Structures are given as C-alpha cells and as structure tokens.
Amino acid sequence: MKDLIKDMERYAEVNNVPIIERDSIEFIRKYIELNNVKKILELGTAIGYSAILMATVSDDVEVTTIERDDKKYREAVKNVNACGLDKRIEIVFNDALDVNLAGHKYDLIFIDAAKGQYIKFFEKFENYLNPGGVIITDNIKFHGLVENKDKIESKNVLGLVTKIEKYIEFLKENDEYTTKFYDIGDGLSVSFRKNDEKIKNID
Ligand code: SAH
Ligand code: MG
Questions:
Q1: What tens digit of pLDDT does each residue of 6-47 get?
Q2: pLDDT per residue as tens digits for the range 69-110
Q3: For residue 132, is it left (φ>0), alpha (ψ between -120 and 50) or beta?
Q4: Regarding beta strands 39-43 and 106-111, do their DSSP bridges make them parallel or antiparallel, or are they unpaired?
C-alpha cells in the first residue's frame, strides 16, 4: 500500500497531475477520523490519490469520486483496483455538473475539480450534504497566486485566480455556512452549516 502511494506520487510528478499536498490530505484524514465521516463525495479524482488516502482512514469509509478526463479516469481505476478498494471507492466517469446523485447524502464533500467552477459545484452539491456534514475545498490559494496577483502574466491564470477570489467572497458572504480558511498546503476551506457549528471537531 505504501509503495502504491509512492508510485502515485511519482506518476503525478512525472505527468504533471496536480494531486493534493501531503499536509492537506493529512488534515482531511484527521477530520474524517475525528468526525466519524463515513460517506464522502469527491469532485475531481485525477489518478485516485486523494480518494485512496481518504478511503483508507477506516474500513467503513465509502468514497464516490467524479472524473471527466478519460486518461485520468482509467489511471484511477487501475490504482483503486491495485489497492483492493474497488468495493469502497466508486469512480464516476462524467462531468460533475452532469452527474445526478439523487437519493444520496454525504458527510464530506471534497471539491477539487476545475477551479473556475467552484461556486457552481458548491451550489449544486450542497444539496447532497448530510446534517453535520462539511464541504472542504482545495487550492484556495492556487499555488500561492491568490496572494500574489500582481505577479501573474497569463490571462488564463489571472481569470482562474479571480474566480477563486470570487469563490472565497461567496463563502464569506454565505449566510447559511460558516467557513474556516486554512493556510495548509495550497490552502483549504472548510464550510459547515451554521446550525451544525456546535457539533464539529475542528480547531
Ligand atoms: N483530487 C485529486 C486531484 C484532482 S485534480 C487528488 O488530490 O489526488 C483535478 C481533476 O478534476 C482533474 O483530473 C480534472 O480532469 C478533473 N475535473 C475538472 N473539472 C471537472 C468536472 N467538471 N467534472 C469532473 N472532473 C473534473
Ligand atoms: Mg487540489
């Protein structure tokens, strides 16, 4: 298992796949453990790295993860099978915005797909959150660029950073949710419904 994780890290580096940073996935794993999270929805599987690390916190964790890129999807299927986790990790090959999850609820929704669509993802998938559940979003700093906007030369990158800023504003102004921002890895946000506040285990 450890070797498979190392192999995935190497594959991600060689192939430029933006997998989650170590500190961030450790934070999420701790959250899963402390809050007794059982059902997880992930947007953006890539090669299955974060899904596998979330599923292995405990034997009763189940992950549904969505990926729209064919090559990454196939790589994720391969990795999940190699880890013997195909019973507990379901990989959906589709655009997250086209997936219908009616009838399902999750304790943790991890948003890590297209950075320009974060608000859309939040608004769609908050409907699938269990009471007491949280929405965690990765790359809230976007490689540190959100804090260094003046250094950005590419128009595309500037557009994405502006969208992440809008997402941060959206979270801060959202009356239904309290969001905490963490300076961990590439920046994480943790959002929970206001009336769930008292039952959460986060510092
Ligand atoms: N969670 C992974 C990394 C995901 S990288 C990890 O930490 O290991 C982001 C992934 O989201 C990419 O593979 C990209 O193809 C996928 N993606 C982007 N927009 C998407 C969408 N709308 N629906 C499904 N997948 C999407
Ligand atoms: Mg990420």
A1: 999 999 999 999 999 999 999 999 999 999 999 999 999 999
A2: 999 999 999 999 999 999 999 999 999 999 999 999 999 999
A3: left
A4: parallel
Which amino acid would we find at residue 131? Answer: P
d(CA 101, CA 180): 27
Strand order across the 106-111 sheet: 89-93, 62-67, 39-43, 106-111, 129-138, 188-193, 177-182
Q: Which two tokens stand for residue 172?
A: 């801060």
CA–CA separation, 203 and 199 (whole Å) = 12
Q: Which atom of ligand 1 is nearest to the CA of 8?
A: 8
Does residue 153 sit in helix, strand or coil? coil
Q: Is 96 in the pocket of ligand 1 (CB under 6 A)?
A: yes
pTM for the whole structure:
0.95
69, 93, 137: which to mutate for ligand 1, most atoms within 8 A of CB? 69
Q: Nearest 5°: phi and psi at 31?
A: -60, -45
